[in-house]
Each structure stands twice: as structure tokens, then as C-alpha cells.
Amino acid sequence: MGLVNSMHDPALLFISTDLGVVIRDKYPKARHHFLVLPKSDIPSIYHVKRKDLSLLYELHLLAVNVIEILGMKTDDFKIGFHALPSMQRLHLHVISTDFISSCLKTKKHWNSFNTELFLDYEYVRNEIEVNGSLRRIDKQKASELSAKELKCNQCNHVASNMPNLKSHLLVHSKR
Ligand code: AMP
Ligand code: ZN
């Protein structure tokens, strides 16, 4: 019940509306990393049906609100779902593309946000609109993506390991 408890944690709570809640990710993988969750008990994106698309739309609006509140640009963020979520309760990630964070440690972390293991909101919404729900990713494909080379998200650089990738990311940092 980690995320559901965190929805009530004042230290993490960022926005609350009738339908959804935005919390800070407890282990942020970038300078700005939030989760948008519905108040209704939907376990995961794989449980979202066509009838839930208006709720999904509301969650996405909350994600955009977060970026506005920060005074930042949507182009500097990724908004979407993990194809293999580890935590229960549907949650939409809102994450800045710097990926500068001490919590970003493993190749699995990197590839979960920077390969097809990360499903953009627009892709997911379209899949549910067209097919009625989101199809699960093939297990073999998921493990291949998870083990993929460490390619920078901002240039063509391929890093040999996580420490190298993390120092490379600083090259792109505006700060
Ligand atoms: P996912 O892999 O999509 O299930 O992502 C779960 C996210 O929840 C990760 O980014 C974690 O850092 C974050 N997380 C894990 N436990 C908590 C918690 N108790 N409160 C807030 N965020 C959490
Ligand atoms: Zn780069």
C-alpha cells in the first residue's frame, strides 16, 4: 500500500482534487519527479477501460498543471506509465528529462524511463481508445529492453556504465 499511504502524506502531497492526487515521488529519478494517482481504486493502467478515459484525461491535466506550477516547459518532461509497474494503484509519472538524481542508480531504472518500457500518455490513451484497453508487453521483449545499452536521452552518446552515464548527463545540465 506504499503509494496509497503516500497520497495522505503531507510531506509528499502536491495537489489534490476530487478525482486525483499528485505526490512527489519518494525516490525521484530526476530533479522533478511526481506521480499522479486517481482517488478511485484502480490497480494499474492495465485495468483502465474505455469508460475510464475521461478520468485518464483528468490525470493528464493534473500532470500538465504540475509543470505549469513549476514554471517549466512540457517539452522538458516525460508524462507516461511504466509498462511494468512495480507499485499498486494506477500512477502517471511526470518526470523532468535531466534524469539527475542520486536515486537513479541502475540500468533497470534508466531503461524503464528511456526505452519502450516507458509508455507515453498519448500512446496509452490512443491504445485504450482504439482497443478498449492496453495490451501487456511481451516478457521477453521487456527483459531485452531492460538490459539495453545505456544510451543518453539527449544525444547519441552510449555510456559504458551507470556512473559514466550519470556524469555524462551533467554535460547537458543547464545548472
Ligand atoms: P513504477 O515502477 O511505475 O511502479 O513506479 C513506482 C514509483 O513509485 C517509483 O518511481 C518509486 O520511486 C516510487 N515510490 C516507491 N515507493 C513510494 C512511496 N511510498 N511513496 C511515493 N513514491 C514511491
Ligand atoms: Zn548526451
Automatic annotation (TrEMBL):
It comes from the Eukaryota. Keywords: DNA damage, DNA repair, DNA-binding, Hydrolase, Metal-binding, Nucleus, Zinc, Zinc-finger. Residues 1-104 form the HIT domain. One of its GO terms (biological process) is single strand break repair. GO terms for molecular function: DNA 5'-adenosine monophosphate hydrolase activity; double-stranded RNA binding; mismatched DNA binding; single-strand break-containing DNA binding; single-stranded DNA binding; zinc ion binding. PANTHER family: APRATAXIN, APRATAXIN-RELATED. One of its GO terms (cellular component) is nucleus. It is found in: Nucleus. This is Aprataxin. Residues 150-175 form the C2H2-type domain. InterPro entries: HIT-like, HIT-like_sf, Znf-C2HE, Znf_C2H2_type. PROSITE patterns: HIT_2 (PS51084), ZINC_FINGER_C2H2_2 (PS50157). The keyword Ion transport does not apply. SUPFAM superfamilies: HIT-like.
